Structures are given as structure tokens and as C-alpha cells.
Amino acid sequence: MKLHPFNECVRDAEALMNRGHRIYQQFNCAHCGVKQTMDDPNVFYRTGKCEECGKITNIESDGCNYMVHAVFR
Length: 73
What we know:
Blueprint lengths: L5 H13 L3 E7 L6 E3 L9 E3 L6 E3 H4 L2 E5 L4
Antiparallel strand pairs: 1-2, 1-5, 3-4
């Protein structure tokens, strides 16, 4: 998964959230490389714990991405 700067992801995701879509933050574990998706929609965390190896990644410095759950009305 391609990672993008944390602040850019937050900015772009907020625009989607304001349109009613749900956003799930994603990051790659800095230790084992496994792609992780946060459980909480519309929240961006600065660090994340890997479900595989249990180590902490500094998402703010390493970058992230997100998944969009689009809501159409």
C-alpha cells in the first residue's frame, strides 16, 4: 500500500467525512510490514499497534492511507 503524509491524509479525509462518508485509517507496520486498518471510523491516530507483531508504528512520521466507505443519499 502506498503511504502518504499524515497531514495530507487527514486533510483529504476530512473533506470526504464532511460529505457523509466513513473513513478508516490504514498504515503499514514499520516492523513487520503488515497492512493494518483501524477499527474506528473517522478517527486518525498518530500511532498504531500491529495486530500481527504487537509493535507500535509512528504513523505521523511514517505516513498512512485510508479506506473510504462511501455513503450515497
